[in-house]
Amino acid sequence: MTALFAAATLEEALLFAERIEPRPMVPVPIFEVTSSRAESRDSLWLDFVAPPDRTEAYHEAYWRGETTNHRPAVGPRRDPHFEVVLQLPVQVGAQVASWLP
Predict the structure, then answer these.
(1) Closest listed residue to residue 43, CA positions, set 74, 8, 10, 88
(2) Model pTM score
(3) How far apart are CA 2 and CA 46, in angstroms?
């Protein structure tokens, strides 16, 4: 699948912009986008540090649309971090905000 990653709400988009690393030195524009197909994914699966076999399992869980909930079994817990995967093509609308570093 060729896709674009987005947020479900403006508030989530602003939170995502705050987490960008390395920190941008210029404003981050935020646009509204639409697509014929959108699916929610828990991107926290992609942040887990693990041996290669576990990493592969975590990535598969991401693409299956599973929620991390209380994983990993050991280590610090974080709330799920959802992003929206939009199938291309997408329609880009108006700029609705800018996040300022």
Answers:
(1) 8
(2) 0.77
(3) 18
Give DSSP secondary structure letters for the chain: --EEEE-SSHHHHHHHHHT-SSPPSS-EEEEEEEES-EEEEEGGGGG----HHHHHHHHHHHHHT---TT-SSSS------EEEEEESSEEEEEEEEEE--
- Mean pLDDT, the chain cut into blocks of 10 residues (101 residues total): 88 90 91 94 89 92 90 73 93 95 85
Q: Smallest Cα–Cα separation from 85: which of 35, 26, 14? A: 35
- Name residue 86's beta-bridge partners: 4, 38
